[in-house]
Specification:
The complex is a heterodimer of chains A (233) and B (337). Chain A is mainly alpha-helical and 233 residues long. Chain A is 78% helix and 0% strand. Chain A is globular. Chain B has 337 residues and is α+β, with helices and mostly antiparallel strands.
Amino acid sequence: MDFLAEAFRRAWGLLIAGDSEVFGIAALTLKVAIVATAISCVAGLPLGYFLATRRFWGRRAALTMVNTALAFPTVVVGLLLYGILSRRGPLGGLGWLYTWEAIVAGDVLLALPIAAALSAAAVQGVDARVRRTAETLGAGPWRTAWTVAREARFALAAVITAAFGQVVAEIGAAMILGGNIRGSTRTLTTAVALYTSQGDFGMAVALGLVLIILALVINIALQVLQGRGGSHA
Amino acid sequence: MLELRGVRHRYEKRLVLDLEQFTVPRGAVVAVVGHNGAGKSTLLRLLALLEAPTEGQVLLNGVAVPRRASATLRRRVTLVEQRPVLFRGTVLENLVYGLQLRGISRAAVHGIIGDVVDRLGLQPLLDRRRAELSDGEVQRVAVARALALRTDVLLLDEPASSADSAAAGALYRALAAERAARPVTVCIASHQLEDAYRWADDIRALADGRLSPVTPENLFRVDLPPGDGVKSVRIGGGVEIAVMTERTGAAVLAVPPTDIFVSREPLASSARNVFKGRVRGMAIDRHGAGVQVRADMGGDAGVELVASVTAEAARDLALAPGISVVFSFKATAVQVF
């Protein structure tokens, strides 16, 4: 147990001292998480709305596919994208492999199904009369979607939280696609894995704490936003 | 003005509407009556261009509407659903929703809203949110929200179902004022025949998704036994009707109110259907010439029949609620569809 206490003491020291490496890794993690969450939600929320509201041939199959994608192992997604982004792959010309953009691409692939499947469920939970009422009052497709989204705002906020949670805690794709390069593609999760394997528990715990604090702050911020909306039903 | 042609509409392969033709003429008030599940709400959703019929066409001013109607087309028709919903926000925000979509200026919106608010007595509710309103108030706000849009066609699904009699009166008076102000076409779904007689120019009846070929009253869903000639069919409670038909199986029986003789004592006649009952209500039609007499024909389920008599006959028979009456009609008067 002593080594754990020592690790926490070391972690606290690093955080108080404002260790540049710790904060550099945290900043990169935050950047990757925000960009990937934004992209996956911008694409996934409309996709979820479409799947929930439109009747078309193959809709059930599309929903099954999205739901199945929720359970994709992160390392498999990383491996797949590695093949695509590697020099001989179809997108090798982009030169993204071992860059933060590659990590974002992997995270988007993992968070997009979450955003689509959960937002489809959220929209399906909204009374069908809301959409019909918006339409009969003259709303076009975008305004109707916005009206429905306003009614499902709590559930949609939870979707964004879930997508962020997936992205910020993911390690498999980040390790394979980013390569865990110091000062370049080292994220909190890959760094924790590295320092743990090197026996530097203090550094690993410090980074783990930062990761938890980061997730906590983002969740509190989203809950505050939801609370504000909730007071005006 | 608004027309359904050769429409068959299905939900999950179940036929819910089967209409060869249904027209709502320009400037008319058409009431659609029928039991719960008769297809009234589905019919209004098709007329509102919110759903495309599985088969057939919807025509607006003689032009076929595409399967996915554009917002521009939909803005000519508005539907108030039976249990309407209000969006998040205040009553005022709900009232301006459709007007803002149409790009109407703030000053004009103010004038329009003020007008409908006065007509429907909504002033005290403007700052309230949906959770602070009763069902009747939500219904009034929804009607006001639709009236404010001044669409060519207004579709109302049981608009007074949650309103008390005063609120229902205010609602129908607001509709009458709207009709006096501009040529608006109205289609109202209702299960209250009295309202239909009082406010509508034309009354249509739906039963099992089909239009009754005769009248909206006295419709009974039955299961006809096999065989020809006169059949005795139970219509509910302990009441049985004699009907002349060759049909068997599920069908709807219609007894035209004008084919029912009303008397105070049983008549010596060839009528196979003679029912003693008590007058439950009377409604004078819009022109004041005819009286609809609704009477309870006994039976455990309280089966009611409606007969149509002239105002003069109603006076001669001294008909009034609570009076005992006898309704008689021939087996051949009963129509089967």
